[in-house]
Amino acid sequence: MYLFMIRPQQKKMRERQAEIDAMQPGDRVMLTSGIFATIRHLADTQAIVELAPEVEVTIVKQAIARTATADEEEFEFTDEVDADEEPTTPDSPEEETTEVAGQEAVEPSAKTTQTEKN
């Protein structure tokens, strides 16, 4: 029983650990969630990965499924922003305007009290 069940499991665990230990900052990996990321920093049990330019998260090393190959990624990943594209900024959270039946309605940012409504 040992030869058929436990030994193969131990071999897989050793291979998996060797694969994780061989990873270096800059490697592209796929996480267990299916997200592609770039390793930025590695520690004993955790890693910091970059999901998009300037978007880094800390994960446990067990969340790394495998090293990503070039043919797995359908989209090219670059850190550069095209010169003809303007960066977008979120709208001001203080007021939102919506159009209701041809009329513009302004939603206040602060709660109105019952006395203010009357």
Note down, in words, how this protein is organized.
- With 118 residues, this protein is an alpha+beta fold.
- The protein has two helices and seven strands.
- It has helices spanning 2-21, 114-117, and strands at residues 28-31, 36-42, 46-52, 55-60, 64-67, 96-100, 103-107.
| Spatial order of the strands forming the largest sheet | 4-3-2-1-5
Sequence of secondary-structure elements: HEEEEEEEH
Q: Mean pLDDT across all residues, rounded? A: 77
Number of DSSP strand runs: 7
Write the topology of this structure:
Elements: H1 2-21, E1 28-31, E2 36-42, E3 46-52, E4 55-60, E5 64-67, E6 96-100, E7 103-107, H2 114-117
Antiparallel strand pairs: 1-2, 1-5, 2-3, 3-4, 6-7
Considering the chains and any ligands shown, give keywords for the structure.
alpha+beta, 118 residues, 5-stranded antiparallel sheet, 2 helices
Brief summary of the model shown:
With 118 residues, this protein is an alpha+beta fold. The protein has 2 helices and 7 strands, in the order H-E-E-E-E-E-E-E-H.
